[in-house]
Design a protein that fits this description.
Layout: H1 2-91
Length: 92
């Protein structure tokens, strides 16, 4: 009977040791999980900022294109006026 109790005591001791190791592992995993969650939040903020920057860049690109189109129209009109002026000078 004593032998059975010793075996039971050993098994309970092993179970307690395993339980302590599992608790330690669980705590380490919780800590790692929190660290990863912080990293995800930081990256989400970076992604949000990049999206805002991208939208701003798109707006600037559209504005530049508008100015370029205006510039081209003005250049064409000026070239036309210069051509007419040259024709007028050639007549005289």
């Amino acid at each position: 009977m004593e032998n059975v109790l010793e075996i039971l005591e050993q098994k309970v001791g092993l179970l307690l040791k395993q339980l302590q190791e599992l608790k330690k592992d669980n705590q380490e995993l919780k800590s790692r999980c929190q660290q990863l969650e912080r990293m995800v939040q930081e990256r989400d903020l970076i992604i949000q900022q990049l999206r805002q920057d991208s939208e701003g860049s798109l707006g600037m690109k559209n504005e530049i294109e508008t100015y370029r189109e205006k510039h081209d129209r003005i250049r064409i009109k000026v070239e036309s006026l210069l051509q007419k002026l040259k024709e007028f000078e050639d007549i005289q």
